[in-house]
Amino acid sequence: MADARAFYITTPIYYVNDVPHLGHAYTTIACDAIARFMRLDGRKVMFLTGTDEHGQKVEKSAAEAGEDPKDFTDRVSQRFRELTQALECTNDDFIRTTEARHIRASQAIWQALIDAGDIYLDKYAGWYSVRDEAYFAESELTKGPDGEKLAPTGAPVEWVEEPSYFFRLSRWQQPLLDHYAKHPDAILPDSRRNEVLNFIKGGLQDLSVSRTSFKWGVPVPGDDAHIMYVWLDALTNYLTAVGYPDVDAESFQTFWPNAVHIVGKDIVRFHAVYWPAFLMAAGITPPVRVFAHGWWTVEGQKMSKTLRNVVEPFKLIETYGLDQVRYFVLREVPFGNDGDFSRAALIHRINGDLANDFGNLAQRVLSMTQKNCDAAVPHPGAFSDDDTAMLDAAHCLIETIRPQMEREAPHEALETIWTVIRAANAYVDRQAPWALRKTDPERMATVLYVLSESLRHLAIVTQPFVPDAASQLLDQLAVDDGARHFDHLGPRHALTPGTALPKPQGLFPRLDETAGEAQSAAS
Ligand code: MSP
User: Fold this and answer.
1) Is 295 in the pocket of ligand 1 (CB under 6 A)?
2) Domains by residue range for the chain, with CATH
3) What is the pLDDT of residues 83-141, one digit of tens each?
4) Which residue, by CA, sits nearest to atom 10 of ligand 1?
5) What's the CA-to-centroid distance between 451 and ligand 1, angstroms?
6) Half-sphere exposure of 46 (CA within 13 A, CB side)
7) Which end of the chain has a smaller Cβ tally under 10 Å, C or N?
8) The pTM is what?
9) Which residues are within 8 A (CB) of 392 and not within 5 positions of it... i.e. 6 or more apart?
């Protein structure tokens, strides 16, 4: 059942205290691109996303909205589900932590931690940030403008004193260090790995894992006065979705040993310190990797409700197009770094990379073929060195981008693909098929064939990133639905000369520099 070619990818589950914004869309888009890539590459994929619905933060937001927490979470969770649909996400499951299957899994992991002797009852007295749903030591706090105490994230903290169960995190310090020494790629990028290692080496305190001062959470088995700490509950979602506590389930056996968690840099500590410690204590192997991406600012500023610059993904897609938004966020910023979102940068990418480079290449080749080759795949003659070099570049693409995607570097994969797009544009200019039309129509057909075959490769490998445009391009090249996987790359599955081609249509319209200006994407 264990299958090294299986692949399990997860987004963080999103807090339902807020409506979806660009930060949420970003993680989901990245995971979707990676999941689509792996499926096209013949791997068995499970892609999970969902919502994090318990805890004090959500309970407070429900109260502020004057709603019962269950009604509130139903409503906001639905908005996140709609986001995954609007992003045309290929998630295999959408988990909600209020579901019965998840409550069962959370209580089961609790029991496993009890059985391991890793949980004990005591009293918590210390600082808590509701916004971060995290405990902070006095030494970690900073002072705000009015002298108030703040968490390192800038969130306000409150003093909490209540009976609490503790997890013996301190016991896991050395096993965690040993685990990371053995698995150097278990945290990426390296900067995050170093941050985590330093934190662990600094000494781990036992962690408070239950609360008694509010009710919105998973009850601690055997002690209803306590609810489980929301992060222990939330992290367990990754197990729930593959069938935990049934560790013999096929889904668990297949996917858990291949789990990759994609998270934002702000939640690395939860995923790379607490989570593997909980898992090891419960006798479960830690995930293969936690990859932390950076944060987006907007036009140079932190995205915040107070600044009224929160980028709404639904509006963004409506204004600029889904493929365009997907491409921009994946290409503009190296995955793992922080980045800035600006309308100008988005339009620049759309008009430059998508319209001028890719769209124009497809348009030139397909419309010349339509007009001059009887609207059918051209019949090539003998290939010149230049033709062979062009075809080789297209055929080799997958070998370069596969390792890039396997290390969660979609920006590198796109850069690689675009070098071939630019090479194809340079080849068109060099070969000037429009001039050959009169002087050497056979040679023109060969050039257009080489280009069409290169376009077929480009369309296949761009499917994970710009799925709609790539599938339109494959339609325009008359490539069958069953011939769009990566095992159809290479010369063996080359286009068949003479195949009728439909009328070409533009893939990426150019935008006016002022597009979306009045109807700003930020609300
Ligand atoms: N509920 C927790 C995750 C639990 S996972 C077991 C949570 N939720 S969140 O909704 O606050 O954040 C979800 C993700 O959105 C995080 O990975 C966070 O890094 C990401 N982002 C939030 N704002 C962001 C930006 N401005 N830019 C990029 N990503 C950002 O944390």
Assistant:
1) yes
2) 6-294 (3.40.50.620), 343-489 (1.10.730.10)
3) 999 999 999 999 999 999 999 999 999 999 999 999 999 999 999 999 999 999 999 99
4) 14
5) 42
6) 24
7) N
8) 0.96
9) none
